[in-house]
Amino acid sequence: MPLTALPILDGMLFINSGVLVARDLAMLLALGILACAGLVALSSLVRIGLGRWLGTARASLWAWTIVLLPLALLVLRQTGRVGLEWLRSVSPWVLTLSPWQKLALLAAFGALGLVWMLRTGWQRSLGHLLAGFEALRPLAWGLCIGALALIAWRPPVWMPLGAKAPSTAQVATPDKPHILVLTIDTVAAQDAAACRSDSATMPNLARFASSATCFTRFQAASNFTTASVSSMETGLLPWQHHANQPDATIVPPLRQHTVAQVLRDHGWRTHFITDNLLGSPRHRGSFEGYDSAPLAPTTLWVNAVRFAATRWPDTALPRLVSASLAFLAPLDERRHQHQSPYRSEAVYDALHATLDAERAHGAPQFVFTLSLPPHAPYLPPPSTRYKLLPPGVLDRLSDLMPDNMAYPSAQQPAVDQHRLRYRESLMAADAALGRTLDRLEREGWLKNAIVIVTSDHGESFEKGYLGHAGVPVHQALANVPFVVKLPGQTEGRVVHQAASQVDIAPTLLDLTGLAPLPRAEGRSLRPILEGRDLPDAPVFTMALERQGRDAPIQSGRVAVVDGPWKLILHLDDGQHQLFRLDRDPLETQDLSAQHPAEVQRLQATIRQRIARVDAQRGLARP
């Protein structure tokens, strides 16, 4: 198992029972057996071809050398890359290395390995290695038999990639409108400017918002996809559904506590379409609420295997496969030096195909889409590339800094350039959205539909952090676009009241006349959408990646927005920052020393909610 799989294994042990972890590893081993069988077959063919010239023994040695050498080089390259990433995480000076210096560092390690091979004799070393493998044959057979027995004892759930057949004959009516939730990954509200008619980056979204309700202060529940999309589905904050790590899932008792499950139970056909596995119900555990959950194709070779493994959505197999094939990443990276492997159009094409297939049923449709661009890598298509940043800068994948990491202040000019490429990617995503909305309008899907356009989280190019995830919860990550259009709505309005992703599920159920989710922490925004008043309420954003789901909530950061105020509380050590967003939307001035009463009030708000959540879970705080 490669080094890149260790964090996956660590996360599995963090959230699952030992039996389930062993079952998932057994499934990975079963796939590994097939891969090894392929290598053996290939080696046998090469050995047969060489046997007439080299003899049986030497032909076997050379055959394995020819088969394993390219694989070994890829593994060594990935090992060096993982080593550099580790050095970067503990030594900021690595960020200052040029690509040539990094290559020289890797070459030095490669030269040491080559000297070792020459001194020891590669044929003798490989012979000893193959002999060692041969000696492990009984152990290998035992592991294989044990793995198959474990899989048979705890068989995984099977979910086909196609749609389930309709179970009831429902018809869309004004009381049962179509519902489209079009989510664009990684869109910061300040970069999108969706509520402004003069938006330069997302003019199509702004045009749509001009006859809809546009929220300027809509807060993500978390700063990365797994947690935030789970909150959108369940109406629960991450401290309740506990999909707190990228590789985590919604806790089993809450996996059917979703808006999709309720709508499906009441006659809607439900679909989730994405090219981001971390956002898919197949990854997060909420797959039972959907009639279909297809994964839109990408041009990454690794994703072809990774997506195929999602047929077993209650396992960690897709992540384990992805990590185990990480040594193939250089091949994909070489193919995508100048273009992103993800296209918004792939998701929207799947959306149209799904609706076309469902048209004959006449049933109301609930479709949740999540398209990855403008998510990193910031490699916009030719249609928008170079609109903000000229050629010669950040043209290739290898030119980009690693994302989702802190950076020193000296790197801010380079980060500002990354933001321009990001905005170019945002322009392309907006153009694809505009074409999709126009087609949905032409085909009649919007006549009787609730349409939401939003994002799962933002993207940071400031405060010393590039990307998302991790521990930051500042507004660049927390504030995202949120535009809602009701059936027949023609008048636009802009709302400056704070709202949250956990309000989405309660709002949709209220608008369709269905009972609310029993444990939802959000509230219905229907009064605001209909032009009525709704009292302010605290809105939370949290980063709890280091918080275990079986322990009282004590680790991570939680931000609360209440009226004009925002408090960020570090749960680990009690540090905090206070900002007044109506006067300082970019959070440049910490006002905690000047307003201790507000700090105390907002801290109490966070602590009381945490205590309530812990009490619901039966966890006593020390």
TrEMBL record:
MF (Gene Ontology): arylsulfatase activity
Keyword Transmembrane in annotation: yes
Keywords: Hydrolase, Membrane, Transmembrane, Transmembrane helix
Boundaries of every Sulfatase N-terminal domain copy: 177-513
Keyword ATP-binding set for record: no
Residues spanning the membrane: 25-49, 61-80, 100-118, 139-158
Gene3D superfamilies noted in UniProt: 3.30.1120.10, Alkaline Phosphatase, subunit A (3.40.720.10)
Family, as annotated: Belongs to the sulfatase family.
PANTHER family in the record: ARYLSULFATASE FAMILY MEMBER (PTHR42693), ENDO-4-O-SULFATASE (PTHR42693:SF53)
Protein name per its UniProtKB record: Sulfatase N-terminal domain-containing protein
Organism field: Inhella crocodyli
